[in-house]
Amino acid sequence: MLALGLNSGSSFDGIDAVLVDIDIGADGLLKRPRFIDGKSVDWPKRIAEQVLAAFENKLSIFELCRLNYVAGALYAEAARSLMRETQTPPEALTVIGFDGQTLYQEPADQRRMAEFASDENLVGRWLEGPYPCGLQIAEPAIVAAACETTVVTQFRPVEHALGGSGAPLMQFLDFVAFRDIGPVLTLNIGGIANCQLADMDRRRMMAFDTGPGNVMLDHAARVLLGKPYDADGAAAAHGKVDETLLSRLLEHDFFHRRPPRSAWRLDFGSSFADKHIAENRSLTPEDLLATFTEFTAMSVSRSIRDHIPILGEITTLIASGGGVRNRALMERLRASLPSGLRLAVSDEFGLPAQYKEAIKFAALALAAQLQLANNIPAASGASRFAILGKLVAAPRLARGVGSMVQQRERA
User: Residue 375's pLDDT is what?
Assistant: First the structure.
């Protein structure tokens, strides 16, 4: 079955579109997706500026409403472009999956969630604040109408309703793709980095954010170098890690949270980076980037050591996401990982690292359309298995149109 996935993650570096073919295995579950083609589309400058303003809570509700539709149209254009290039008609596509651009994400207050365990106080779960919530934009109806293909989107709210973290979401694809070779660890380095323990036994699986991925590095490159990112980590490679700053960074409150845990741009984003840049003006741009790179690598390695209970059984960490293109970061990761843990890239397993997050949404959407459980409660903290995602059917699938026309003509 052909599925199309779209993604623009927390790094906000463009919209990725992928076309994959996914079969059903003998166990009735999805098999590892087969990558066919993919492309990336930049956010137009005018739209990107609005999204960045929304990250900082600087848009009115009226502006945000229109931006939701604008983003939906941009996602639709990315999907249609890939459909044209691969000569894939709507009739050949089973589903399009995407989550939309996350603007805000609020993790659960795990210490207080037990107070609201009873279903009798549903409103209080969110009014009083302990349950997680989030907001994604990119109106799915526009994508379904423009592509004449059924869309499944917004996968996190069902997880939130069941007390789950809703982030990360990579664990379902990792179960689909790697259950036959588990247990293995996977690492996705987007704006925020996340780690998953994939296993044939879903009860043993884990998923949690490790901390910053590219978000601090990209912001620092814009501020210090006047560039959108530090290509290949070249500037960081010429710098020296400042141990005092590194120690302060590792004191962040995020690292005291237990899995399942999620982070957002506001944890490690522009304000956090700017604070430490301003407090360390004596350091060169290269030294700051080297320290931020080491911070990202240490966040990953410490999280793995601290939170993976069966680390001794695991020999491979499979990395994906834009961060794998940062040579300096990958070198620091290899140096800091536990002994005996090989760092591989997902391309080795047929899943291009650049497109793995978009492939994830194609798999989640197809599972939802087939009414297959596409969450991993042991990894997310959700109370039970569920079908994540909201479905918008393709307009061409509407039935009874002919009979309604005939009734109007007779009238």
Answer: 97
What distance in Å separates the CA atoms of residue 256 and residue 109, rounded to the nearest whole number? 13
Query: Taking a C-beta distance cutoff of 8 angstroms, is the pair 229, 218 a contact?
Result: yes
Cα 6 off chain centre by: 11
Element (H, E) at 36: strand 34-41
- State how far the Cα of 355 lies from the Cα of 373, in Å rounded to an integer: 23
Radius of gyration of the chain measured on its C-alpha atoms: 22
pLDDT 10s digits, 271-323 = 999 999 999 999 999 999 999 999 999 999 999 999 999 999 999 999 999 99
Domains along the chain with CATH numbers: 2-402 (3.30.420.40)
Distance CA 231, CA 305 (A): 29
**What's the Cα-to-Cα distance from 331 to each of 23, 69, 82, 101, 340, rounded to whole Å?**
36, 41, 34, 30, 15
Yes or no: say if 205 and 199 are a contact pair by the CB < 8 Å rule. yes
Cα–Cα distance, 364 to 370 (Å, whole number): 10
DSSP β-ladder status, 133-137 and 101-106: antiparallel
- Start-end of H helices in 197-269: 215-220, 234-237, 243-249, 265-268
- Cα separation, 140 vs 197, in Å, equals 31
Q: What tokens appear for 259 in the block?
A: 């899995």
In the three-class reduction of DSSP (H, G, I as helix; E, B as strand; rest coil), residue 91 is classed as helix
Burial label for 335, CB within 10 Å (0-12, 13-18, 19+), is exposed
CB 237 within 8 A of CB 328: yes
